[in-house]
């Protein structure tokens, strides 16, 4: 059973990056885009452990959810240095709220990107999501957050491989990813659509 996510809202006052619209981001010149991306990445990569820092990260992730639904922005973000930082946050964040929102951003990027570069570490994201689902298999709430991102990445990889004239194995998908996905589906796990 697929449940729709509630729309996300970010707090303009506490967001520490300019709140550009998706349209503005998609038409930005390279230097402005790099500046914006650098600010986003440094905020996400911050190692501060206090609750204010966690709230700031969550707020930034809510903002990223709102702009990741734009095809050009999603394509630019997934191919940027942001994607490896999202994977790192998914792996290392002590706060599961942050991990859940990171998974949602990854899922939205995978859903809305129109082109995937061969150097984008989607395999790493698939492996990590698979491991997190397996480690937390009895936690239905976590699976509901992680499964959509895994599904969207698998679909993106399959679509990209199909588009290529001479498909190469750019992105390795471990069989464990399909096993975990099928096990969840067999058990009738409800999950949220990105």
From TrEMBL:
Q: Which InterPro entries match?
A: ARM-like (IPR011989), ARM-type_fold (IPR016024), ULK4 (IPR045906)
Does Transferase count among this protein's keywords? yes
Supply one GO molecular-function term: kinase activity
TM ranges: none
UniProtKB keywords: Kinase, Transferase
Tell me the domain of life: Eukaryota
The entry's protein name is: ULK4 kinase
**Which source organism?**
Burhinus bistriatus
**Which gene name does the record give?**
Ulk4_0
